């Protein structure tokens, strides 16, 4: 494997990636819901590939009952329920706030209906401060047994196509892992006109306190994130990479540079970091540094020499 | 301006760093006491603020744990924590030894406000809630503000901060389940007695919903400014994840605010105490 | 919650459970693939609720390339590929071997077609040494991108119904977690005539070595087990409990008595222990002891006072 | 009777227990040496057998790790392990300190066979493979069997067991990448030289596929009985999960057998060495 051979001189790492038309200076960005303005105190947003605030809903939302997070082995479950100040506040405060940074803003949209997605995409996608849209078609926290748009290929296709019709901004579909065949949802997104895929949102999960006999979360169920589920996600990234031509943003359980490299080898062009920022507030910058050291160690000049390069001896899937 | 908008404005430096453990010892059946070197901290620490501490990810303690400062020693640049051993995190914390370091993010959140002209304040603590109020008692003592404190606990064993408070010159009342003195009505009588004897400029509470409702009731009737330090399960501890919320009433509107950023200290009257 | 109140005297725990007609002296049994004859050296099989050897295939199978296991945070991935000596060996050696124990034998069947399932169920189900059948309709290790019978409700129904037609022995369907709605597969199993449901088999997963750029497993993908995925499984047990009347055998990530209690609170009547036996060979007996201590501590006399008793304040799902 | 059926018959007591660490020290850049109290073990330990050791589940080392016994000291009832630090597990193992205990399951697997009438044996070890062969050299020395050993390693630094073997009276040949002497052809020459000078009754190898193929070739030509200790990733280490398999040829049939139960030691001629 020649790419792994130590190259004579390392002339600096090329970390730029293009995600469905959006140019990023490096592949590291926050995961929605684990990032916000108050993190400016702990890291310089200019160092990130993109900024990606919490999913926004059309109207203000109160969110779920507390406790909203609980800890599990190698992970956590959350059921924030998308507490939100609504689109107006977002347009007036959040979008302008990020203008001060030389980093593209990806706006994550959550909505209760296809129409609402279209309406919000119209407003946000056509706002000059927004560089790309991530459609959160996968949030499992809503009532109704964790159902999400992204659990159905036809709905995904319809939704994507309608949103595509209303805006030209790069469109990223954030998929849910709670499906039988993620490839089908990936293809539905591609056919609907998405420019990239975020793989993936959280797994629907539940934890019960054996002393109180109550669920650990006020909302009973929530989404599990963190390193414990990463191997399932690496598999999904690999499957989506085989099935679809769209660039992939890997997401789930990335705690360090090697986790990010693993996702990129599986096929991700960029990587989101969520829960790791709770364990270490500046985790994103650490991940980035570790990617650079890795590339230096192995003499890899361009991050594209890693993407999708997992290597097989024998078995190739059909 | 609303509570929740206030704190995006001030840019205070908060650091996540390894701090050295100067001691970490068991002080009673369920309580431990840890002293750390605070010389590397970026900002001053205020009573009521907290640190988000990595208790050790072994033992499955994946997330960090929030702990308020128990004592702030400016002279020798140390910070003290008092903690109750409860689950994985606090148990893991007891394993850390003098000389080792612990990853600690802070100081975080908004501390107590102590008016310059205050003469006498009232502290109402339940259980390990005293860990949070003690730093305030320490500051009050430094500023010459007199303190009356009611400490409520399961047993005498859990009342270990009483002597420290007395050392600060506080008038300390202890109530316990052990003695059958910790019921709300008895605490009400003690508070009524204190407020009858003294002019209380402000009241502070931490550690019990029941007692907080009691104090809310008394202080609103008597028009005494009061603050409460709240606890909620946290994710980020820096205001981005919205895990740690509670409801406050401002301008007749219910607002859901973050304990880690807009709190943990809130005006007692604004907090909607869950039943 | 009166069941949690300390009862005056604990007159011994009633641990017996009935799983779709099969009486077990206690709810703890091994998970298929993590148990076998050579474990007799470390624990007394008479103490178990049931014995459950590795899934058997009709013909001998070589299994997958090595490495067949790899470690991940709070778990492991395996791709054994059901190495098997075939049905004849099983009938001649395995079934008679377990006759020496006073513990029911559940035979796990894996097959490549519905017909083969029926054929094997006929032979095994009508063998007096076999007390129940577990249909492994969920093994994700087979080639073809991890597809399994249990990913399709119609196939599950057909398969179950045909097997039901051929034998009267208690029939347990082992479900796969790799589906959009596990409730649908549970109901298909119930309608097809299954007597109980094992919830669940492993999640399809993948791990890549960032130094060699190769998958950690010879087979590329495998099934992830262990405590990291338990919260997803607790959720599934709870969902299946709400949807179906069949007794549930919980499986996945049980490391100690509290994990088993958690699954029972969610709705499991019995619990399988797999990976934990790799970490601690006598884990099953420890789990059992911990369940007894728990019941004693809370004054619970009958294990049925725990099953499905997760307790809600507000939210009840529809 | 086939290899794989053999071991279900004998009921040997195997225990999973906490054993006390008497020492655990770094002996070279990459190697560590651990001594444990073996007085509580249920059975005698044979060279080639291994223990399945819980290196500490912190640091994400979830599964146990297999290590063969390096020395078996019957007199003071201790066992020694020599291990190479590689990943999470072995790194976690280095953190364990004298006086602490380590959970250890064993002795497991089938050891080497050393014929009663053997006079001279040949050991061929690569890298940490010597950790597995050393116990055999120790036993040979005890039984008065002479030993010739070829130790292959990256660097001199990694040849640390050489002196111990010399202490047992072994004739030791060292080859390294550092010296450019470790190529297969050079090793072949050394083996040819040893077999020319001595009547070798049995040969044993561990640690290198390349060298094992070489030894397979030479010993089959010369009709010298030979054994190999194999390594495979393990799940259960007790023969139930079929993670640790390798292919052997018996009666012209390929059989997939378990390294943890039927091995780790196998007749060298039976093993199908992957290319
Ligand atoms: C601002 C603030 C200051 C605090 N100061 C102190 C202090 O000075 N001394 C002290 O002993 N305790 C203090 N606490 C409570 C302390 O954080 C919890 O007792 C601790 O997190 C329990 O962790 P555990 O692993 O031992 O328990 P577990 O019950 O195993 O914890 C499981 C999870 O729930 C969370 N959790 C459990 N109880 C609480 C709680 N009361 N508040 C917040 N999260 C909780 C944990 O952080 C963890 O994520 C404070 C809490 C907050 C929010
Ligand atoms: C029977 C037997 C005896 C052994 N004796 C010794 C010994 O005496 N001294 C010594 O230093 N090493 C020995 N090994 C190898 C040792 O088990 C591995 O080096 C060790 O498991 C690596 O763990 P790690 O966490 O440091 O490495 P990692 O590469 O992080 O391990 C990841 C996973 O792969 C497995 N793995 C990696 N390498 C091996 C390997 N070579 N064999 C089996 N599993 C592996 C690990 O057990 C773990 O599950 C022996 C192996 C076997 C099978
Ligand atoms: C507290 C919390 C809140 C989240 N909120 C959102 C959200 O609003 N929108 C969204 O698309 N994903 C949300 N997620 C999911 C994350 O973006 C991410 O998909 C998931 O956490 C997995 O990545 P991680 O393991 O790196 O955290 C949230 C996750 C957490 C932990
Ligand atoms: C090494 C290994 C082999 C397995 N083989 C089988 C099998 O043959 N049939 C089956 O139904 N499940 C098999 N499983 C899945 C387990 O029965 C169980 O569903 C899974 O491991 C989750 O439980 P655990 O976390 O307690 O291990 C296997 C699991 C492991 C780890
Ligand atoms: S803990 Fe994340 S907002 Fe408070
Ligand atoms: S490790 Fe399980 S059979 Fe060998």
From TrEMBL, chains A, C:
UniProt EC number: 1.3.-.-
InterPro entries referenced in this protein's UniProt entry, alphabetically: Aldolase_TIM, DHO_dehydrogenase, DHOD_1B, Dihydroorotate_DH_1, Dihydroorotate_DH_1_2, Dihydroorotate_DH_cat, Dihydroorotate_DH_CS, Dihydroorotate_DH_I
Key words of the record: Cytoplasm, Flavoprotein, FMN, NAD, Oxidoreductase, Pyrimidine biosynthesis
Pathway recorded for this protein: Pyrimidine metabolism; UMP biosynthesis via de novo pathway; orotate from (S)-dihydroorotate (NAD(+) route): step 1/1
Source taxon at top rank: Bacteria
Subcellular location: Cytoplasm
Positions bound to FMN: 32, 54-55, 136, 174, 200, 226, 252-253, 274-275
SUPFAM superfamilies recorded: FMN-linked oxidoreductases
Positions bound to substrate: 54, 78-82, 136, 201-202
Biological process annotations from GO: 'de novo' pyrimidine nucleobase biosynthetic process; 'de novo' UMP biosynthetic process
Necessary cofactors: FMN
Free-text remark on how the cofactor is bound: Binds 1 FMN per subunit.
Active-site positions on this chain: 139 (nucleophile)
Presence of the UniProt keyword Ribosomal protein in the record: no
Statement: the UniProt record of this protein carries the keyword Heme: no
Major site of localization recorded for this protein: cytoplasm
Pfam family, one: DHO_dh
Every Dihydroorotate dehydrogenase catalytic domain range: 15-295
Record field: catalytic activity: (S)-dihydroorotate + NAD(+) = orotate + NADH + H(+); (S)-dihydroorotate + A = orotate + AH2; (S)-dihydroorotate + fumarate = orotate + succinate
Family, as annotated: Belongs to the dihydroorotate dehydrogenase family. Type 1 subfamily.
Oligomeric and partner information: Heterotetramer of 2 PyrK and 2 PyrD type B subunits.
This protein's name: Dihydroorotate dehydrogenase
Organism of derivation: Natribacillus halophilus
The organism's taxonomic lineage, starting at the top: Bacteria, Bacillati, Bacillota, Bacilli, Bacillales
Automatic annotation (TrEMBL), chains B, D:
Positions annotated to bind [2Fe-2S] cluster: 236, 241, 244, 260
A Pfam family assignment: DHODB_Fe-S_bind
InterPro entries in UniProt: Cyt_c3_hydrogenase_gsu, Dihydroorotate_DH_ele_sf, Dihydroorotate_DH_Fe-S-bd, FAD-bd_FR_type, FNR_nucleotide-bd, PyrK_electron_transfer, Riboflavin_synthase-like_b-brl
SUPFAM superfamilies to which the protein is assigned, alphabetical: Ferredoxin reductase-like, C-terminal NADP-linked domain, Riboflavin synthase domain-like
Domain (FAD-binding FR-type) ranges: 14-114
Domain of life according to the entry: Bacteria
Entry binding sites for FAD: 65-68, 89-90
Alphabetic keyword roster: 2Fe-2S, Electron transport, FAD, Flavoprotein, Iron, Iron-sulfur, Metal-binding, Transport
Required co-factors: FAD; [2Fe-2S] cluster
One GO BP: pyrimidine nucleotide biosynthetic process
Membrane-spanning segments: none
Record note on cofactor: Binds 1 FAD per subunit.
UniProt GO molecular function: 2 iron, 2 sulfur cluster binding; flavin adenine dinucleotide binding; metal ion binding; oxidoreductase activity
Protein family per UniProt: Belongs to the PyrK family.
Protein name: Dihydroorotate dehydrogenase electron transfer subunit
Organism: Natribacillus halophilus
